[in-house]
Amino acid sequence: MQVERSAGSGGTGGVRVEEDVNPLKKSGGVRGEAAAAAGGGSGGSDSGGATPLAAQLTAPGHLAHERPPPSASLLANKYLILDPPEGCSLHTCIDVNTQQEFVCRVVGRDSWTIISAHYRLDQHPHINSVREVLMGDEYMYLVFPASFGDLHSHVRQRKRLRESEARRLFRQMAETVRACHRQGVVLRDLKLRKFVFSNSSRSVPKFI
């Protein structure tokens, strides 16, 4: 796990994981080049190669759940962060240099307890590992590997799960919650959208 511009440490003892925030509703110091990166408006500064990428985001056939610019922000001249789907707090972010897709969770800048919780649980098979942590003026940005959708969308799409599949998924979720509790981590915002799939067969959900 890599932390950039970090200046604190997680606490000890019990950790309460707070709800996520949406900084795209309120600028937190990362919008500076968003307009230029999106190819619209006057940014006046170099977009770090994001303009061609923004054009791809608006092309037909792109992922339906992603909203095209200008509802996007450029973070650290590295990631283009898109607005999350309705009802979801997780953002899609794209490396403007490699065009590799990731998942981004945004929390308050003082949410070091969340970083501490991820350190404690980083090796658990059903906890999504943090790839990188970036600091903004008001928020911290936790970057995770790309997922194959979340459990909420999977259930809505399937409408009905076989009992064997539902039992297996529920068992993995319960094991994840138990592991968190054993490490003193209380999940305040527990819901299906927080479990993402790490494989294309959607058999291994990971808490993010």
From TrEMBL:
Residues 38-47 have a biased composition (Gly residues). Residues 1-208 form the Protein kinase domain. It holds the Pfam family Pkinase. Gene3D superfamilies: Phosphorylase Kinase, domain 1, Transferase(Phosphotransferase) domain 1. Residues 1-54 are annotated as: Disordered. It comes from the Eukaryota. PANTHER family: SER/THR PROTEIN KINASE-TRB, TRIBBLES. This is Protein kinase domain-containing protein. It comes from Ranatra chinensis.
